[in-house]
Design goal:
Blueprint: E1 3-5, E2 10-13, E3 49-54, H1 92-98, E4 106-109, H2 137-149, E5 166-171, H3 174-180, H4 189-205, E6 210-214, H5 223-226, H6 242-267, E7 272-276, H7 278-286, H8 289-298, E8 326-329, E9 332-334, H9 355-371
Parallel strand pairs: 2-7, 3-4, 3-5, 5-6, 6-7
Antiparallel strand pairs: 1-2, 8-9
Helix pairs in contact: 1-9, 2-4, 3-6, 4-6
Length: 379
């Protein structure tokens, strides 16, 4: 059940078991005009559209511009690429859409690798591997969502949605911290969260009322920081005391989220906001095999045998790769040069997690969204 935070009007998501039901597709909404005055949240079972903003942990390779295939009853993720995720398989967005959904959901995903909340706020250039137009939340909202799916489009929106049947998901912080942690100061935190709030305001003005924010995981435990795995691949500055600096930067970032939500919900009492605590989940899973295996077994997954590092032979795998990789079903595969199949690793590479971890994230989110059907005020 959702942890009750009446004074802030939002729900802090924790871990619990999964109970999934399915339902037939519902007709397309006929308007994108926001409702006001009362909560629009009607429960996870009433969500028909996901609009996703974020970076590589959330991205699915979706291109929202025509003539690229849009989400549809036969293809709920649209032109998202199989294996076009940071897990090289399904990620939590895919699982929320197709596995832990309680209704038929279509997902419009603006997330892109390397994205930050605001390039301007972090005083950094776009991530070198992402020179395109989705490199921060500002661009994803103002250049992607608003001119494509709202009355600001200047043309027929590419899809219709309602406040009641839509959930707006955002997952930022990792790349913001990569860009700033080595400075050891908080100079970018205030402008970063001012930009975050403005993005939420822009979505609210367009009609969004239901929001889900994921906080930042314990990045100091990523192999790139804990043992240097893949540091050169990701162009991440590695400095003395890097784990201490990163831990503090994550603490600072996550510490701002309650204030962000308190301010936003005070100004907009008809908005419902959920926060999923990825940080707590990762700490729990990485605390030892008994904790991680208790969570993976809930999702009918193999035990995770390696929680500390990644196998270099799995980092570039994509579905369809020929041997020596052996495909084991779902998104699992095995290379004899590694200690086990990729489904037994927590980390895929220096900074990203494997698909079983994403499945655990999605299952926990879905369960708590179902438990928060009254908008986080009861549970």
């Amino acid at each position: 059940m959702c942890k009750l935070l009446r004074s802030l009007g939002f729900c802090l998501i924790t871990l619990s078991a999964i109970h999934i039901s399915t339902a037939a597709p519902t007709p397309e909404p006929q308007t994108d005009q926001a409702r006001s005055g009362t909560k629009a949240w009607g429960g996870w079972e009433n969500v028909e559209k996901l609009f996703v903003f974020g970076a590589s942990y959330a991205g699915t390779g979706f291109n929202w511009l025509p003539p690229n295939p849009a989400p549809s009853p036969s293809n709920p993720l649209g032109n998202s690429v199989r294996g076009g995720t940071s897990s090289n398989g399904f990620n939590f967005v895919t699982y929320l859409t197709t596995t832990f959904n309680a209704s038929f959901i279509q997902t419009y995903n603006f997330a892109f690798a390397g994205a930050k909340v605001s390039n301007t706020a972090t005083s950094s250039t776009p991530y070198a591997k992402n020179p395109g137009g989705q490199n921060d939340m500002v661009a994803q909202v103002t250049n992607g969502f608003l001119p494509s799916y709202t009355s600001q489009a200047g043309h027929e929106p590419y899809a219709y949605w309602t406040a009641e049947s839509s959930l707006f998901v955002s997952f930022f912080g990792i790349n913001d911290i990569f860009a700033t942690y080595a400075k050891g100061d908080r100079s970018s935190t205030a402008p970063m969260f001012a930009a975050y709030k403005q993005n939420l305001e822009d979505l609210y003005t367009a009609g969004a009322r239901n929001f889900l924010i994921l906080n930042t995981p314990p990045m100091e435990l990523m192999p790139v920081f804990s043992n240097g795995f893949g540091a050169s691949d990701w162009q991440i500055p590695v400095v003395a005391n890097n784990q201490t600096l990163v831990r503090q930067a994550v603490q600072d970032f996550n510490g701002e989220i309650p204030d962000l939500i308190s301010s936003f919900t005070s100004a907009h009492p008809d908005a419902t906001m959920f926060v999923y605590d990825v940080h707590a989940l990762f700490l729990n899973m990485l605390s030892g095999s008994s904790a991680s295996n208790a969570l993976t077994s809930q999702r009918q997954l193999k035990p995770l045998l390696n929680l500390q590092t990644a196998c270099p032979f799995y980092t570039q795998y994509k579905p369809g790769t020929k041997k020596p990789v052996d495909y084991l079903g779902e998104d699992d595969f095995e290379d004899a040069r590694c200690e086990g199949s990729v489904g037994t690793y927590f980390w895929l590479n220096g900074i990203h997690v494997t698909w079983p971890v994403h499945k655990v994230i999605a299952g926990a989110i879905a369960e708590e969204l179902k438990g928060g059907a009254t908008g986080g005020y009861e549970g």
